[in-house]
Design brief:
DNA-binding; 154 residues; 5 helices; 6 strands; alpha+beta; ph1033 like fold; single chain
Length: 154
DNA sequence: GCCAACGTTGGC
DNA sequence: GCCAACGTTGGC
C-alpha cells in the first residue's frame, strides 16, 4: 500500500463533487512528474485530497485509487481543452487513474498547520508546492489523519 | 489579483 | 545543450 496526495482547486473539482460523483477520472494532468506518480499508483492506494487556492488551502478528505493508470482520453480530443497534438493513441503522452470518494474530514488540515508541524517538514507539499500529484510517506499520512481527528483506517 | 517559483519550449 | 521567454500554479 502506498499513499499519495492529489490537489484540486475547490472551485474546479471539490471533494463535495467527488462525493456526489462517487468516482472520477483524474484527467488533465499535464506535468511529467505528476504523471509518473499516477503511473506508480496501485489499486487500493489511499490519497489525501487537497484543496488548493482556497482560504485556507487544506487536506479536506480521503480518496482511493480504483483503476490504475491508463491513457487520458482528453489528450486525443481535438475539441477538448486538454488536447495534446503531440500525443497519439499509438503513443500516448498522458495517463490518469480513477479515484473514488472515501471520506470528508470534519476538520480539514490546513497548509498552515502542516507547515507548523515538525513531523511533516519533509512532505512534498511543503517542499515542492507546485506538484499536483505527489507521494506521501505512511508516517505522514497517519499524522495528517491524527491532526484531522480522524479515526485510523482499518 | 499579484507575483514568485517552477516547468516547458524553442532559437541559437 | 544552453538559456531566455513564456505559461502555469498556487500561496498570500
Amino acid at each position: 500500500m502506498q499513499y499519495w496526495l492529489m490537489k484540486s482547486e475547490a472551485d474546479v473539482y471539490s471533494i463535495e463533487q467527488l462525493q456526489a460523483d462517487r468516482r472520477t477520472m483524474w484527467d488533465g494532468v499535464r506535468n511529467y512528474q505528476a504523471r509518473n506518480n499516477m503511473q506508480a499508483m496501485k489499486k487500493g492506494d489511499l490519497v489525501l485530497y487537497y484543496h488548493s487556492r482556497q482560504d485556507p488551502s487544506a487536506v479536506v478528505g480521503l480518496a482511493r485509487v480504483v483503476n490504475e493508470a491508463y491513457p487520458d482520453p482528453t489528450q486525443f480530443d481535438r475539441d477538448h481543452k486538454y488536447f495534446d497534438e503531440k500525443a497519439s493513441v499509438e503513443s500516448p503522452r498522458w495517463y490518469l487513474v480513477d479515484i473514488e470518494f472515501v471520506r470528508q474530514f470534519q476538520h480539514p488540515v490546513s497548509l498552515h498547520d502542516i507547515k507548523a508541524d515538525a513531523a511533516l517538514s519533509e512532505m512534498v507539499l511543503v517542499n515542492n508546492s507546485r506538484l499536483s500529484v505527489q507521494p506521501v510517506r505512511e508516517s505522514e499520512f497517519m499524522h495528517v489523519l491524527r491532526l484531522a481527528g480522524e479515526p485510523a483506517l482499518k
